[in-house]
C-alpha cells in the first residue's frame, strides 16, 4: 500500500513541472520592457525601467527566471507583486481561505445531494421520479452558473430578502449560502448523472446476478456490491470535474464580490500584475492536482485490486 | 406508431437537434428577425423599459432592444463554439493520429503534453491566455481553440493504436499507400462517431466559457452584443430592471442544453451498448 502511495506521488512531480512551465512561458513570453509598459508605467524613464527590471529579476533570460521561480516555489516564495510591492504569497495567503471555504461548501452540496439522487434514480429507473431528476440533471449541467447566481440573487435576495446580495460578511453563514449553491449545483447535476450511469452499468454485471441468485437481500446487494463498485467510476468523474468547478469559482467570486483567489486573479489580469496572476493560476491548478492525487489514492482503499496493477 | 416509438427512444437526439437548428437559424437570419439594430438603435428615452409589445424582452440601460441584442448575440456564441471546437478537433485528431500511429517517443511526447493539458481546468487555461493577449473576441477564439483538444487526441490515439495492426490497414500498407494516406483514409473514418460526440459537447463547453469570459469583461467587448457580456452589468440593475438578467442567460442555457442533448443523443445512437440497455 505504501509503495503504491509513494509511486503515485512521485508521478505527480513531472506533471507539476510541465504545468508550471506552460503557465510560466505563457505569462512571461512578453519581454520585460513590454511587461512593464503594459503595466501602465509608461511615464517611467529608461533608467527607472532598468532599475525595476533589476529589482524584479526581469533582466535574466527566461530559462533562468523559470529556474529561479521554481526554486522559490519550493520555499513558498512566488515573487513580488508589481502593483502592491508585497510578496505574492502574502497576497494569496490572505485570499485563499474564502475560496477553499466556498469550494468545500459547494462540494458538500454536490456530493451530499448528487450521489444519493443519482443512486435513487438508477434504482427507480424508468419511473417519473427518475425522469424528473434526470431532466433536472441535464439542465443543471447546461446552466450558465453566473446566470443561476443572478436568478438566485433576484428571487432570494431582491424579492424574498432572505440573504445578503453580495460580499463576504466577515464569514457569516448567510453570505456563503448563495455562492455555494450557485457553485455546487452544476457539479451536483454532473455527479447525479454519473452516479446513475455507473449504477445502471454495474447492475448488469454477472456478479450482481450471482449475488441475487444466492438470495442476498437487495439492501446488501446495493450497499455492498453496487455502491462500492460504482464509487470508482463516480470518484473518477468527481476528481476530473472538480477542476471545472474550481475554475468556476473565478466567475462566481466575481459575481458575488467574494474576496477569494478567483476574484483576485481576474483583477490581476486587468491590472497586468503578472506575478499575482501566475501565483493564483498555479495555486488553483495545484489544488486540482492534489484533489486528483487523493482520488487516485482513494481508489486503492476502495478497490484493493488496483494497487497490484 | 413506429415513428412515435422511435421518437421517444431518441428524444434527446430529436429535441437537441431541434433546439440547435433553431439557434443556428436565429444566428444566420439575425438581421431579418431582429426588429432593431443591436448597437445603434439606442434611445435613452426608453432606457430600462420592461418587456412590452414594442420591446418584447424590454430594453437595457442604454435603451437598446434586448431581443435584438439577444438575436445578434447568437452569432457570437455559435461562431465561438463552432470555430474554436473545429480548431480543437483538428489539433486533437492530428496529434492523436501521430501518437497512435508512430508510437515510441512521438507517443510519449504527445501523451505527456495531453496529460498536462488535462490537468489545467479549461477556464483557467483560457484566463492565462487572456492575460497574455489581453481582452477581446479574437483572443477568445485563440484561448478556446488551443486548449480543449486533449479528449479528442486521446480517443483518436487509442483507436489508431487498435486499428494500425488490423488486416485492412496491413493490406493498404502492402498496396504501398503512404503513411498520411493510411492515417486519414483507413484509420480516421473509424473514429468519426466518438469525435463528433466530443465535438458537440465541446461546442457547448466553449459557448459557456466564452459567456463566462465576456461576463468577466475579458471576452467580447461592448458594444458588440454577446450573451455573457449583456449579463456583465446585470447585477447592478437587478433591482431596477431584472429582465436584463433573464433573457440573455436563458438563451445561453437553451443553446447549451440543446447541444448537450444532441451530444448525448448521438452517443446513444453511435454506441449500441448503451442503446440496447435502454
Mean pLDDT of chain A: 83
Helix amount of chain B: over 70%
How many DSSP-defined strands of chain A?
0
Count of alpha and pi helical runs of chain A? 12
Counted beta strands of chain B: 0
Series of secondary-structure elements of chain B, N-terminal to C-terminal? HHHHHHHHHHHHHH
Give the helix/strand class of chain B: mainly alpha
Oligomeric state of the chains in view: heterodimer
What is the approximate shape of chain B? elongated
Mean pLDDT of chain B: 85
Mind telling me the C-alpha Rg of chain B? 22 Å
Order of helices and strands of chain A: HHHHHHHHHHHH
Main β-sheet description of chain A: none
Q: Give me the number of helical elements of chain B.
A: 14
Beta-strand residue fraction of chain A: under 5%
Residue ranges of chain A: pLDDT <50 for 5 or more in a row? Answer: none
Fraction of residues in H or I helices of chain A: over 70%
Task: Describe the model.
The complex is a heterodimer of chains A (309) and B (278). Chain A contains 12 helices and no strands. With 309 residues, chain A is mainly α. Chain A is flat and about 85 Å long. Chain B contains 14 helices and no strands. Chain B has helices spanning 2-9, 11-28, 30-33, 66-102, 104-118, 122-133, 137-145, 150-163, 167-174, 179-187, 192-216, 227-230, 243-270, 272-277. In chain B, helix 2 (11-28) packs across helix 4 (66-102) and helix 4 (66-102) runs parallel beside helix 7. The chains are: A mainly alpha (309), B mainly alpha (278). The interface between A and B is large, with 51 and 45 residues.
